[in-house]
UniProtKB/TrEMBL annotation:
Residues 1-338 form the FMN hydroxy acid dehydrogenase domain. Its cofactor is FMN. Glyoxylate binds at Y24, Y129, R164, H233. It comes from Hordeum vulgare subsp. vulgare (Domesticated barley). This is (S)-2-hydroxy-acid oxidase. It comes from the Eukaryota. Belongs to the FMN-dependent alpha-hydroxy acid dehydrogenase family.
């Protein structure tokens, strides 16, 4: 069967993977309302395409934290990728590098920072939880820096793990042949303390991942974050938080252009990428499409997901009358808020 879009990988991965592993990747917290909403909220945003514009040359390149990327589509940290495929994080790293984009390695990876670095050149970020034992964090950060990682994505929405009922039912455990190169014992302090402390031990820029409110957006800016990733942890933490695409504009406005804001969660189409950029995101991160395509076809699967999203995004830009990312504006989309007159008229 020819795969024609990103979502099709999930159904094939479901047949291929053991139930416990598929459910671990696929499930969300509690009622999984936010899990569904992360997708459905995109469907409620409509386009206002402009026509009769020469779109014969489309430029999707962008610069993120000073790094030139082929497109504003990057890879989120997802845990334990060797459960999906024996090559795990190695395959993801190679696919991201070949596509000219960024891979973020999870703290809970089944491959170490050194192993991922050994796959060859590439721009890589390292996702970090803040553990009680700061000596552990310090060692991790120094190892990531030494291995050539370029930024830290500090995950701040996990003071405790969310309740994922599929994992409880399945009695989820990491398969015996795999090990986490990192550890339990999550304990988050305050964002200001954590960002400031991390800045004292590394020169890597710090992105704060897990922000969905204006208040926390301002806090991130005030405490020297290099960027914000609007994320609800793939709907795996607190259920009934808004979809990230619904929270994006609030966070962007509060950041006041001082630092870039990215979106993570629910991106499955090039149209989703365009909508996020129109609402102020500097780029998007994809998570589940990576592990599902990895499960189905290894590195080739991840490469194909990145290519499909890139091609769809390019087509969306062309059909909307945009030659470059700078051409994508708020006027290209209509949200629920606009329809109900919550937002002032833009004309």
């Amino acid at each position: 069967m020819e795969i024609t879009n990103v979502t099709e990988y999930q159904a094939i991965a479901k047949q291929k993977l053991p139930k416990m592993i598929y459910d671990y990747y696929a499930s969300g917290a509690e009622d999984e309302w936010t899990l569904q909403e992360n997708r459905e909220a995109f469907a409620r945003i409509l386009f206002r395409p402009r026509i009769l514009i020469d779109v014969s040359k489309i430029d999707m390149t962008t610069t993120i934290l000073g790094f030139k990327l082929s497109m504003p589509i990057m890879i989120s940290p997802t845990a334990m990728q060797k459960m999906a495929h024996p090559d795990g994080e190695y395959a993801t790293a190679r696919a991201a590098s070949a596509a000219g984009t960024i891979m973020t390695l999870s703290s809970w990876a089944t491959s170490s920072v050194e192993e991922v670095a050994s796959t060859g050149p590439g721009i890589r970020f390292f996702q970090l939880y803040v553990y009680k034992d700061r000596r552990v964090v310090e060692q991790l950060v120094r190892r990531a820096e030494k291995a050539g990682f370029k930024a830290i994505a500090l995950t701040v929405d996990t003071p405790r793990l969310g309740r994922r009922e599929a994992d409880i039912k399945n009695r989820f455990v990491l398969p015996q042949n795999l090990t986490l190169k990192n550890f339990e014992g999550l304990d988050l302090g305050k964002m200001d303390q954590d960002v400031k402390w991390l800045q004292s031990i590394t020169t890597m820029p710090i992105l704060v991942k897990g922000v969905i409110t204006a208040e926390d957006s301002r806090l991130a800016v005030e405490n020297g974050a290099a960027g914000i990733i609007v994320s609800n942890h793939g709907a795996r933490q607190l259920d009934y938080v808004p979809a990230t695409i619904s929270a994006l504009e609030e966070v962007v406005k509060a950041a006041r252009g001082q630092i870039p804001v990215f979106l993570d969660g629910g991106v499955r189409r090039g149209t989703d990428v365009f909508k996020a950029l129109a609402l102020g995101a500097a780029g998007v991160f994809i998570g589940r499409p990576v592990v599902f395509s990895l499960a189905v076809a290894g590195e080739a699967g991840v490469s194909n997901v990145l290519k499909m999203l890139r091609d769809e995004f390019e087509l969306t830009m062309a059909l909307s009358g945009c030659n470059s990312l700078a051409d994508i504006t708020r006027n290209h989309v209509v949200t629920e808020a606009d329809k109900f007159g919550v937002m002032p008229s833009r004309l």
